Amino acid sequence: RLFPILFYLDRGWSREHLRDVFPLDESQPPGPSKWLAAFALFVIDRPMHRELFELLQQNYVYAVSYWQECMTRSGALGHHFGERLLSHIIAGYFAGLVGLDGQSLLVRALENASDNDRASNARALGEWFREVATKDEAQRSDFWRTKGNIIVQYWQQRVMRISAIGKENAAGEAEGLLGWLPAVPWHISQTGNQLRSLLEAAREDWPLE
To answer: What is the pTM of this model?
Structure first.
């Protein structure tokens, strides 16, 4: 969990000793190990950091590839690990480090994550957008000018996926996405149909008309 501090103090040493801190063995599925404990604590304790995200890319890919094994074998940390791992990868998307097409790291993480993990991250994004809404006009305009397109792409991808997997697998995430609406100033194409899909998937009995 102190690796970001070590990286800040000495990037060269951190790169040289990366495998000592995170002893990843990609030749086999994860078990209870030093790597799993170190990476889980790092992900849980720290927000996504651009340079570290790129440096630890293999670790993120491995954790997503063995998602269920990592959650199960990280013991008590597993409850938070999935939520925070998905949060890091979503932050990577908004930083331009991860795509949202095909079988990208983010798409696979969203597929593997639980509805609770996806819902928590959807709510966190909504809080971010509501915070932006309190800024002055120039700051709001700059944010939506630079982030608007990728936010719309994320919204549309999630609505389509929620429609496909159904209420039993996505009710929490649907409610989290609905919480974005008071804060977002842009028009989403086919808004009526997309809202209906989310309302039908949400746990609460929202009025459809």
So the answer is: 0.90
Q: What is the pLDDT of residue 69?
A: 93
Angle of helix 57-65 relative to helix 78-94, nearest 10 degrees, comes to 130
One-letter amino acid for residue 188 of the chain: I
pLDDT at position 189 is 43
Closest CA to 170 of 111, 125, 124: 111
Q: Which amino acid is at 181?
A: L
Question: Can you tell me the distance from the alpha carbon of 173 to that of 202, in angstroms, rounded to the nearest whole number?
Answer: 8
**How high is the pLDDT of residue 63?**
96
Low-confidence ranges of the chain (pLDDT < 50): 189-190, 207-209
Answer for the pair 199, 178: CB distance below 8 angstroms, yes or no: yes
Listing DSSP states for 71-120 in one string gives HHHTGGGHHHHHHHHHHHHHHHHHTTSS--STT-HHHHHHHHS-HHHHHH
**Mapping DSSP to helix (H, G, I), strand (E, B) and coil, where does residue 17 land?**
coil
